[in-house]
Specification:
The chain is built from 13 helices and 10 strands. It is an alpha/beta fold and 337 residues long. The protein has 2 domains: 223 residues, Spore Coat Polysaccharide Biosynthesis Protein SpsA, Chain A (Alpha-Beta Complex), CATH 3.90.550; 87 residues, no CATH class.
């Protein structure tokens, strides 16, 4: 298949990470599936990244570079999506410092072809250092265990290879990062692009909306090396807390949920602090007493904080509308150049 007719469109926004983005691109080029296009968004780089990107694209007709002024990550991803070919069947968003396991594109595509009802297919991400070294396994990776809520209200654990639905995505996202996911373009067009008004948890809002369209098919194996650094913005709990709260509030009052979904969302808001106890148990089991105790304390604080926040927010139901009013229409609509 020629670059003009790819099955998969991949988007990588990058900013001043020339070494990392080369590693990400090389891992894509090494895949045994080759019918892809890659749009790399130069997000206002100020170092030698531009020269590195030019060299990458010069040697592979499937790679295109789009340069934009420095902007937020969400806006850069949305820009990249709009630059992809509208004829591709699937879209993958990819961070510039992660890289794929060998053979992953073929495996994800095979799973997607087997599950035409699924809006997306995803595998597991391995948190690792720059070399790919990690003490995680498939059984301990992010979202290896998932709580879910049935329409009846019953809270239960999902089997490792079970589909994800609104019933568990509303509790917490089972997806650690974008590049572990192969999205069906038709579902992406129906869902719309990322909304940049929920802070650093805007990807969770995106997956919630996707889960309202259909199931997520899970490939229960490791597919992505996720370069994990403790100082990353996504690990900043001070920034994450208000972002998560705004999404939970929008679940409580917005989105046009069905009565069954609204019930599930209410239970999810109550169940979510329990996740801190799960993480605490994992920390204690590996002998990390300090982190385990911190997570137990955080759980208690979360329960108290959420209850107080609901009381405050219940008196101010324009909260979500104020957030929505800050979103530019061009950042939420799906339009391809």
């Amino acid at each position: 298949m020629s670059p003009s007719n790819p099955r998969i469109s991949i988007v990588i926004p990058t900013y001043n990470r020339p070494t990392e983005v080369v590693k990400a691109v090389r891992a894509i080029q090494a895949q045994n599936f080759s019918a892809w296009e890659l749009v790399i968004v130069n997000n206002g780089c100020t170092d030698d990244t531009e020269a590195v990107l030019s060299e990458l694209s010069a040697g592979d007709a499937r790679i295109r570079i789009e340069t934009i002024p420095r902007t937020r990550a969400t806006a850069a991803r949305n820009y990249g999506i709009r630059c992809t070919k509208p004829t591709s069947e699937f879209v993958m968003l990819h961070d510039d410092d992660d890289w794929l396991f060998p053979g992953v594109l073929e495996k994800l595509l095979r799973k997607a072809d087997e599950r035409p009802d699924a809006v997306l297919t995803y595998g597991m991400a391995l948190n690792c250092d720059d070399s790919g070294a990690s003490d995680e396994t498939l059984e301990t990776a992010f979202a290896a265990r998932r709580l879910a809520i049935a329409e009846s209200g019953r809270v239960h654990w999902l089997k490792p290879d079970a589909d994800d639905t609104f019933g568990n995505v509303a509790i917490w996202s089972p997806i650690a990062t974008f590049a572990q996911v192969l999205m069906r373009r038709s579902a992406l067009e129906q869902n719309g692009l990322l909304i940049d008004n929920f802070g650093i948890a805007d990807d969770w809002d995106f997956w919630i909306r996707m889960s309202m369209l259909g199931p997520f098919a899970r490939l229960n194996e490791l597919v992505l090396y996720r370069r994990f650094i403790a100082s990353n913005t996504s690990n900043n709990h001070a920034l994450m807390a208000p972002s998560v709260l705004s999404i939970r509030h929008s679940l409580k009052f917005g989105r046009g949920l069905t009565p069954a979904q609204r019930r599930v969302a209410s239970i999810a808001n109550a169940v979510s602090p329990y996740l801190f106890l799960i993480w605490a148990q994992r920390a204690l089991s590996r002998g990390d007493i300090r982190v385990g105790v911190q997570l137990i304390v955080t759980c208690a604080k979360e329960v108290t904080k959420v209850q107080l926040a609901w009381r405050r927010l219940d008196r101010d139901r324009t909260f979500v509308e104020r957030y929505a009013s800050t979103v530019e229409p061009g950042d939420t609509g799906f339009a391809i150049r």
